[in-house]
Design a protein that fits this description.
The complex is a heterodimer of chains A (about 220) and B (about 250). Chain A is mainly α and about 220 residues long. In chain A, about 85% of the residues lie in helices and about 0% in strands. The two termini of chain A are about 25 Å apart. Classes of the chains: A mainly alpha (about 220), B mainly alpha (about 250).
Chain lengths: ~220, ~250
Amino acid sequence: MFGTFLCILRRDITLAMRRRTDILTTLFFFIIVASLFPLGVGSEKEILRFLGPGVVWVAALLASMLALERLFASDYADGTLEQMMLTPQPLSVLVLGKVCAHWLLTGLPLVLIAPLIGLQYGLEGQTLAVMAAALLVGTPVLSLVGSIGAALTLGLRGGGILLSLLVLPLYIPVLVYGSGAVTVSMIDLADVQPFMALLGAFLILALAFSPLATAAALRISVE
Amino acid sequence: MKFHWFHFSSPATFYGLAGRMIPWFLALALVTGVVALYWGFFETPDQLGGSNPQKEYYRIIFVHVGSAWMSMWLYLVLAGWSAFGLVFNTRLSYMMAVSVAPTGAIFTFLALFTGSFWGRPSWGTWWDWDPRLTSELILFFLYVGYLALHSAIDDARRADRASALLAIVGLVCVPIIFWSINCPDPNQCAALHQRSSMGSIDGNILFAMLALTFSFWMYSFATSFMRVRRIILEREAGTTWVNEQLEREAQT
């Protein structure tokens, strides 16, 4: 079963590496959205430091949501998805492999670039580390939960807008505790622990249940 | 005749049953609604609380609490019918789920709307990011997402099953809303909604509140049954029984 997982993971990464612009567009979307806020609200240091955690998280949320559309779309278009569903391997494992590859390609770059964005907002040392850590735990949850929405809206007209309507409400807990961790770390680093513990709990729950839900959704969408 | 558990799960038999039950539910909703409003306006104290009393405007409570309860309950009903549909593969379950959703969304909106009007005189603000307000807003988004997904898919079977799955996934939010006021220490979390118990509410107020909630519940039954009858006719259009039914209704 682990072999299946690795096989899908390797395949998706190889495919994505052949078309690198797709990865970069998500990353640049994230950077542009985060850079627009100082232009809109003014560049006063205090305001920016106050807004920073929330803006970075909301930008990450939007970027990962926009990337979701491509999660199953190309495999659905050329029929690979149907072939995958016919294999004897459990569909949820295949889905988990695809979501992991998707996160490595779209989520991980965000996590790595986020400290740089944080610098633009005047965040410092520890806060940047906490932000990267919170994103590292939080963005996989976004990919996992989002995959359910991506599977449900597969091949629908206006799928992108609909996807945001379905998925964003479910992202709210991650947003609240993710940006909460960063805000709290500016005051006292010791207070970060409960926030990280909750994010970790979300990740474990999402890892356990969302591949099953996504597999069920795929079976509904492709039949 | 031997009773069969799935007798009324056939749209054809349920259509008639729902039609016979609608007037009863409507009458119950109307009677309890009038009683509850009378009681709420004329039989309850003019103000609430001690040092900083809430004056006449606290009477919003009768609509507000009832609709907030119904918003959560109807989501459970929606998810319940969705689960029934996915497990037993009965068409009627999905139709019930689809017809409950708009009523649920309306009650969620009503809870937010009346809460806002209550918040203005008592908290001094139309809106506050209190945990319960926020989670109720998320519930509203869930209803809207459900309805949007259902209407975006043309194939009825896929629409039913996809939105049913979405409803069940969204179920994780309902306990959060329900327990969002159970803040262990009021000094630490700035929640405007605080915990209270049924026993500490004045008997007359409690009666009016529960009666109006009951009225809302009956109203939900009536409207969902009306909606489900439309959906049944739409989905079964072209079958013999629908044509016969329509002819009979045209004659009377």
